[in-house]
Amino acid sequence: MFEIPPDHPRAESLKIREKLIEGFEKGLVAKAGLIAHGRGEAFDYLIGEETTKPAMEAAKAAAAAMLLAKHPVISVNGNVASLVPKEIVELSEVTRAKIEVNLFYRTREREEAIKNALEEAGAKEILGVGEAASATIPELSSWRRKVDPRGILIADVVLVPLEDGDRTEALRKMNKTVIAIDLNPLSRTAQWANITIVDNVIRAIPNITEQAKKLKNLSSDKLKEILKNFDNRKNLGKMIEIIKDRLAKLAKEGIYIPEASQVYKEMRKIE
Ligand code: PTJ
Predict the structure, then answer these.
(1) 42-46, 83-87, 247-251: lowest mean pLDDT where?
(2) 201 pocket-lining for ligand 1 (C-beta < 6 Å)
């Protein structure tokens, strides 16, 4: 892995990027996955690279939905397997969710590479690899239509981190509850899902696990209450407001980076 200078002002973001490049070189991440990450980074900048209150509320609703589910499934693609393999395994253990590999750019080599990465991270069972993905999601023409009859096909709740909108729509039409993690609140996935967590998967997956641990001993009535009080439209609206207000504030203040702001002040003094 390329060594990131620890004092680099954007060291954390660069480390995440390197993880993805490494995942690409190991055959887990699709070329388009690198492009998708860039898009995610841009939206993360806009929200301030931290979990917002609405994102935490969505993570809580997601945890409640997964705990209430009969057959919860976590759908994993190349980006997710590269960025948060251990965190996916922990979430699956806390919520008893199955893990299924489901790829847009499906190749047998990538399926196997992702399965290996998840097993290295401690996963015991991985669905959806090779012939195991023998069932089909109706009305979906992409490779994402191929699912495991023990997993996504019979799931009542599916967590789809970094998804494309078509499958979210298809899963909803199959009456499944879809939980999406997407930094872009305007994406088709974000708009189609029942619960959308507008946050980076790096933060969102551990947040759902933390919430699930807290909620685990609640009665199903209490969990249902949490879901009833969650409104995805409103939550997405709040996220868009947060971006809007943040940009308005930054535009007013003139500059975003505190050190740069200081340099400008010094320059003005000299003038
Ligand atoms: O591994 P595969 O073959 O299944 O392919 C995976 C990709 C991501 C290439 C595929 O699902 C795809 O093309 O996705 P899209 O349509 O590019 O959408 C990805 C969405 O995820 C975009 O809205 C990004 O803003 C968002 N995103 C990117 N990185 C992150 C993210 N959201 C949360 N956390 C991230 N780290």
Answers:
(1) 247-251
(2) yes
Residue with tokens 């993880």: 19
Q: How far is the CA of 218 from the centre of ligand 1 (A)?
A: 33
Measure 168 CA to ligand 1 centroid, in angstroms.
Answer: 13
Q: Under a CB-based contact definition with an 8 Å cutoff, are residues 79 and 102 in contact?
A: no
Count of Cβ atoms closer than 10 Å to residue 209 Cβ: 21
**DSSP letter assigned to residue 144:** G
Pocket of ligand 1 contains residue 196 by CB under 6 Å:
no
pLDDT, one tens digit per residue, over 53-64 is 999 999 999 999
Structural domains in the chain, CATH included, are 53-238 (3.40.50.12640)
Kindly report the number of other CB atoms within 10 A of residue 129's CB atom: 15
C-alpha distances in Å from residue 83, one per residue of 130, 161, 225: 23, 11, 32
**pLDDT, tens digit, for every residue of 6-54?**
777 677 888 899 999 999 999 999 999 999 999 999 999 999 999 999 9
Is any ligand 1 atom within 6 A of the Cβ of residue 193? no
The residue assigned the tokens 């669905």 is: 127
Tell me if the pTM is above 0.70: yes
103 CB near ligand 1 (under 6 Å): yes
pLDDT by residue (tens digit) across 118-174?
Answer: 999 999 999 999 999 999 998 788 888 999 999 999 999 999 998 877 888 899 999
Ligand 1 pocket, 36 CB below 6 A?
yes
Q: Ligand 1 pocket, 20 CB below 6 A?
A: no
Ligand 1 atom 16, closest CA: 164
